[in-house]
Specification:
Layout: E1 4-8, H1 12-23, E2 27-31, E3 43-46, E4 49-52, E5 58-59, H2 66-73, E6 83-84, E7 88-93, E8 96-101, H3 104-114, H4 119-134, H5 145-153, H6 156-165, H7 170-173, H8 180-189, H9 196-207, E9 211-214, H10 217-231, E10 235-237, E11 244-248, E12 251-256, E13 260-261, E14 266-269, H11 273-280, H12 288-296, E15 303-310, E16 320-323, E17 338-343, E18 356-363, H13 366-375, H14 377-398, E19 406-412, H15 414-421, H16 435-439, E20 445-446, E21 449-454, H17 465-481
Parallel strand pairs: 1-2, 1-14, 2-10, 7-16, 14-21
Antiparallel strand pairs: 3-4, 5-9, 6-9, 7-8, 11-12, 12-13, 15-18, 15-19, 16-17, 17-18, 20-21
Helix pairs in contact: 1-10, 1-17, 3-4, 4-9, 6-9, 13-14, 13-15
The structure holds flavin-adenine dinucleotide.
C-alpha cells in the first residue's frame, strides 16, 4: 500500500517532516490549528512594523556547518541568506547593567574586570566557550561513514561538551566561582536549573558567529519553508485543529479535523504532546516517559510579548535584560523583577525607514490569562493595554521621547500561545533543558499504536529551531523506513 501521511501541526517540525517525506515521494497533508504556518516560530506585521516573536539566534548558521546544510535542505535558509550577528548583549545584575561583548577576548576581559578573584575559572569557562565556537554542530545521528568521521573530527568539541556538560546544572557549575556578581550574571544569562551545555552552546556559537539571526527573521524563514513544502506537492489545511484520533487494532484509522478523514497510512504528531496524549487520545494510551515529564519536569515560563512600533529610532539594544524599576502586576499578583527588551533595528526590513520595531518580554502567569480570556474578553484586552501602558512609562525614563513616538502596540499573552498553538501551560519551548529532561529517553512512538509517530520540541527537551528541524527529519526517516503499511 502506498504511504500517505497526516501531519499534526505546521510548525518548524511539521514543515520539516513534510518536506523530507515529500522529497521521498510520500504524499503528506498537514492540519494546522492556526491560520498560518510556523507555530511558535512566527512574526507579525502591524501597520508596516514587523515583530519577530521567535528568533534571537539560530545555532549552526555558519556556512559549511552540518546544521546550516540542514537549514538549506528544508529551505529555512538559502545559500545567500544574510546572517546578522549581535556585538553585545546587556545584562543587569543588582541594578547595574553590564554590556557583554559577544567576542571571546573582550567577553573574558569584561568578566575579569567584574570578578578578578575568579580569574582561573573565567579562563576555563572562556576556553570551553571558544572550543564550542570552533566546533561544527552535529546535526542528528551520522548517516554515512563520511558524516560519522566529520562528527568525531570537526564536531568533537560539540560532542565532548555535550557529554561533559549536559548533566551539569548552571547553578552547580557556578559553585566553583566566588564572586557573587559574576554568579548572578551567569544565572541571568541562563537560569541555574538549566544545563550548562545550553549556556555553552548559546555563548560559543554566538561568539564564533555560528549562531546568528537570518535577515527577514521568522517572517521570511517560514515563508521559504512553507513555499518549498507546497512546491513539493504538500498541502496545508489551516484553521483546522485535529480534535480526535480514532485507534482500532493498534492503528490510528481516522482523524477528526472539521470532519472525519481516513485516507492515510501514518500520522506524525508534530504538535503539543499534552494535547495529543490527553485530548486527541483521551488518556487511553500512556507514554510513560512523556506522562512523567508532563507531570514533573519544569517548563519554560509563560510570557507576554509587548510589541511596539516607533516613529523614530532609540538606543534600544538588540538584546537587554533590565530590572523593572516599578512593580507591574502581570496577572494575579505576579510581579516580574526584570524585563527583556530587543530592537530589530539591525534588520532594515522590520520597520519603515528611520522608524523602529521593538519588543518587551515579561514573565506572566498562564492560568490567569487563560481564564480571563475565556470569561471576559473586554477585561482581557483592557488588562493587556494597561500593562503595555505601564511598560511604556517605564521605557520613557530610559529612552526620553519614546512615549510620543509610539505608533503601534500589540500584546500577546500566555493565552495567545494556547489559543493559536495549543501550547500546554503556555510553555513556548516545552520542557526546560534541565539535566533530567535532557537525559530522558523519549520514545517517538506510543506503546500500542503502530502508525503514530512523535516529533518536535515536546519530544526533544530544550526545544529550539535546530532541534525542531532535526526532530522532523528524524521522525520522517522512521516513517520512510517503516514496514507497517
Ligand atoms: C518567544 C520565543 C523565542 C524563541 N527564541 C528562539 C531562539 O532564539 N532560537 C531558537 O533556536 N529557538 C527559539 N525559540 C524556540 C523555537 O521557536 C521552537 O522550539 C520551535 O519553533 C518549535 O517548533 P515545533 O514545530 O516543534 O513546535 P510548534 O511551533 O509548537 O508547532 C506545533 C504546531 O502544531 C499546531 N498544533 C498543535 N496542536 C494541534 C492540533 N491538535 N491540530 C492541529 N495543529 C495543532 C500548532 O498550532 C503549531 O503550529 C523561541 C520560541 C519562542 C516562542
Amino acid at each position: 500500500m502506498t504511504k500517505k501521511v497526516v501531519i499534526i501541526g505546521a510548525g518548524l517540525t511539521g514543515l520539516s517532516t513534510g518536506i523530507h517525506l515529500q522529497n521521498h515521494g510520500i504524499q503528506t497533508e498537514i492540519y494546522e490549528q492556526a491560520p498560518w504556518p510556523g507555530g511558535v516560530c512566527t512574526a507579525w506585521v502591524r501597520k508596516g512594523y514587523t515583530f519577530d516573536g521567535c528568533i534571537h539566534w539560530m545555532v549552526g548558521t555558519r556556512k559549511g556547518d552540518p546544521m546550516r546544510t540542514l537549514y538549506e535542505y528544508v529551505h529555512a535558509l538559502e545559500p545567500l541568506t544574510t546572517i546578522l550577528h549581535m556585538d553585545t548583549i546587556d545584562v543587569t545584575v543588582d541594578h547595574e547593567t553590564q554590556r557583554l561583548p559577544l567576542e571571546i577576548k573582550a567577553f573574558e576581559q569584561t568578566l575579569l574586570e567584574l570578578a578578578p578573584a575568579d580569574a582561573k575559572e573565567i579562563h576555563r569557562l572562556c576556553k570551553r566557550i571558544k572550543k564550542v565556537g570552533r566546533s561544527d554542530m552535529v546535526a542528528g545521528s551520522p548517516k554515512s561513514l563520511k558524516s560519522f568521521v566529520h562528527a568525531i573530527t570537526r564536531g568533537r568539541h560539540f560532542l565532548w561538551t555535550l557529554i561533559r556538560f549536559m548533566h551539569v546544572k548552571v547553578g552547580d557549575y557556578t559553585q566553583r566561582m566566588t564572586d557573587y556578581r559574576l554568579i548572578r550574571l551567569l544565572h541571568t544569562l541562563m537560569p541555574p536549573s538549566m544545563s550548562m551545555f545550553a549556556m555553552l552552546m548559546m555563548l560559543g556559537t554566538r561568539m564564533a558567529k555560528n549562531g546568528g539571526f537570518p535577515a527577514g527573521g521568522a517572517r521570511d524563514m517560514i515563508k521559504r519553508m512553507s513555499d518549498h513544502y507546497h512546491a513539493l506537492g504538500g498541502h496545508i489545511t489551516y484553521r483546522t485543529p485535529i480534535t480526535d484520533l480514532c485507534v482500532k487494532d493498534g492503528r490510528v484509522v481516522e482523524v477528526t479535523a472539521h470532519g472525519k478523514h481516513d485516507d492515510f497510512t501514518h500520522v506524525v504528531a508534530a504538535s503539543d504532546m499534552h494535547n495529543l496524549l490527553n485530548q486527541l487520545l483521551k488518556g487511553a494510551y500512556p507514554h510513560p516517559v512523556l506522562d512523567h515529564l508532563l507531570k514533573e519536569s519544569p517548563l519554560f515560563d509563560p510570557i507576554m510579548l509587548i510589541s511596539i512600533g516607533l516613529t523614530k529610532t532609540f538606543d534600544v539594544p538588540l538584546s537587554g535584560t533590565y530590572d523593572l524599576p516599578v512593580e507591574i502586576d502581570t496577572g494575579d499578583g505576579f510581579f516580574p523583577t526584570q524585563y527583556h527588551i530587543r530592537s530589530f533595528d539591525f534588520d532594515p526590513s522590520f520597520a519603515p525607514e528611520r522608524h523602529s520595531s521593538i519588543m518587551v518580554t515579561l514573565a506572566a502567569p498562564f492560568d490567569f490569562w487563560h481564564q480571563l480570556r475565556q470569561t471576559d474578553l473586554n477585561a482581557y484586552n483592557n488588562q493587556k493595554n494597561a500593562i503595555a501602558t505601564q511598560m511604556i512609562d517605564v521605557l520613557k525614563d530610559r529612552y526620553p521621547g519614546i512615549k510620543e513616538a509610539v505608533a503601534v502596540i500589540d500584546v500577546a499573552t500566555p493565552s495567545t500561545y494556547y489559543r493559536l498553538n495549543n501550547l500546554y501551560q503556555g510553555s513556548y519551548e516545552g520542557f526546560l533543558p534541565v539535566p533530567d529532561a535532557l537525559n530522558a529517553r523519549i520514545d517517538k512512538k506510543i506503546p500500542g499504536i503502530d502508525n503514530l509517530y512523535l516529533a518536535g520540541q515536546w519530544v526533544t527537551p530544550g526545544g529550539g529551531i535546530p532541534t525542531a528541524i532535526m526532530s522532523g527529519i528524524e521522525t520522517a526517516n522512521m516513517v520512510i523506513k517503516s514496514q507497517d503499511c
